[in-house]
Amino acid sequence: MKKQYLTDKNIAHSYGIHVTTLLGWEKSVRLVEAEKEHKKARACASAIEMVILLLDKRQ
């Protein structure tokens, strides 16, 4: 009985670690994607700013 409890506990423990690493991995993937999107948005914004500056100079 005690041995069965120990193996169940070990399984639960390893499963808990597995779940947390998966959640952590998913969170870090989301952060990386958000950073990529942010860089794209900044690049677009700076390109738009350059166009506006060029149009202002032409007038």
Describe the structure.
By secondary structure, this protein is an all-alpha fold. The chain has one domain (8-57). It has one helix and no strands. The longest helix has 57 residues, at 2-58. The termini are far apart.
Short description:
This protein is mainly alpha-helical and 59 residues long. The chain has one helix at 2-58. The protein is rod-shaped and about 75 Å long.
**SSE order:** H
Number of strands: 0
Class inferred from helices and paired strands: mainly alpha
User: What is the quaternary state of this protein?
Assistant: single chain
Cα separation of the termini? 87 Å
Number of helices: 1
Number of domains: 1
**Using only CA atoms, what is the Rg?**
26 Å
**How much of the residues is beta strand, in percent?**
under 5%
Mean pLDDT across residues:
72
What is the 3D shape? rod-shaped
- Biggest sheet details: none
Stretches with pLDDT under 50, minimum 5 residues: none
> Roughly what percent helix?
over 70%
Write the layout of secondary structure elements.
Elements: H1 2-58
Keywords:
single chain, 59 residues, mainly alpha, rod-shaped
